Amino acid sequence: GFNSFGICCGTSPKDFSTPFDGGQIVYETGSSNSPNSYAPNPALATGVNPATGAPAGAQIYGAFPHTPNAVQYLYSLETQMQLPSQMVFTLGYQGSIGRHFLRIIYLPFFYSNAGTPFGGGVYMAKPDTNSMYNGLNAHLERRFQHGFSANAIYTFSKSLDQLSFEGPGSLSNQTDPVNQKTEYGPSDFDLHNHLTISGVWDIPVPFKGMEKTLLGGFQVNGIYTWHTGYPWTPTTYNPNALPQIAGGATVNPQRPYQQILPAGSSCSNDAFINGTNFGGTNGSSYFVTSSPAPGPGQATGTVHPGIGRNSFRGPCYQDLDVSVAKQFAFHTMDHDTLLRLQANFFNAFNHLNLQPLQNYQSTTSIGNGQFGLSPGGDSGRVVELSARFEF
Length: 391
Hints:
Helix content is 4%, strand content 37%. By secondary structure, the chain is mainly beta. It is extended and about 95 Å long.
C-alpha cells in the first residue's frame, strides 16, 4: 500500500500573481541530486495522530494478499455463405465471460468506521467483479466490382457486469457496493442494437482523353451508423440514508426502492428534451424513495435498492458521414503524379444527437427539475477540405 497527501489545485483563482495554490506548494530545485537537498513543503506536514500513531489525514490505498489474476474467456462461432452478384453473407455468435476483475472499494462501507485514524479514507483493490457478453453478428458484404462495394453489419448483443470501470469516480461508483448482486446489470457501454452501413463508389465515366480527366476520377464514400441508447441509473439523494453496515460510512446517493408508475421507453430526441418518458415531471411520482423496513442483516432504516442498475435507456444515435473526392492523374517530369481533392462531411445531414445520461449527473437524480433529460447535444455538421499531392 501507499499513503498519498495532496494540495489542490495549482494557481489560486483569487490570486493569479501567486502561483501554486497561493504559495502553499513550494517549487524550487535542490542543491544536489539528493532528495534531502530539496526544500520541505510545510503544507504537507500534516503530522501524526498521537492517539493512533498514524499520519493525520492520510489516504490509504492497498490490495488484499493472494489477489488472483483477472481471467477472460472468449468464444465465437460463425458461418459464411456465397450469394449472387458478388455478395457474401456471414452470420456469427460472439461471447465472453470475465472473472476476478478489480474494483476499488471504500473500506468504511464494509466495516465499522469508528476510530479510523485515516481521515482521507482507505481504499482497497478487490477482485470480485464479473462480466458476461453475448452477441449475434450479421454481416452482408458486396465485394468490389464495377467500381462499387458495400458493407452492412448488424449486431444484437447484451453486456452485463457489476461495474464497468474499476473506479473510484463519480461515473463508476456503485450505489450498493456492499451487495454485488444488486449491482449486476447492463454494462455502462451496453448497446442492444447496432447497425453500420458503408459503401465506396468510383464513379465510371464513358469518356477518354481530356473529358475523362475532367469528369472522371470521382469517388464517393459513406458511413451510416445507428444504435439504441446507452443505459443509465436513476438515483436519489435520500437525506435519511444510513450506513448499510452498522457503524460504517453512508452510501449516498442511492437508487429508488420501488417503481410505482410505468415510464416511457422512447429513445427519440423529444423524450430527452421534454422529458416525456416521465410525463414531463421530475420523476418523483414514479418512484418510492423513502426507506421501507430493513431486510435481514441490514442496518436499521436502510434497505438495498429495488431499482436495478442501468435499468433505463438513453437517447438513440444516428449519423451519416460522407466523403467526396476527385483525383487527377498525370505524368510530369518523368514521374507519375497524383492530385487528390477531398471534402469530408461529418454528420452530413446535421442531425441532432443528444448526449447519453451518466451516473451522478443532475439529470439522473430524482426530484431534480432536469431529471430524465439529456445533458446536451453532440456537435453538428463538420466540413473538412483537404488536398493531397503525390509524386
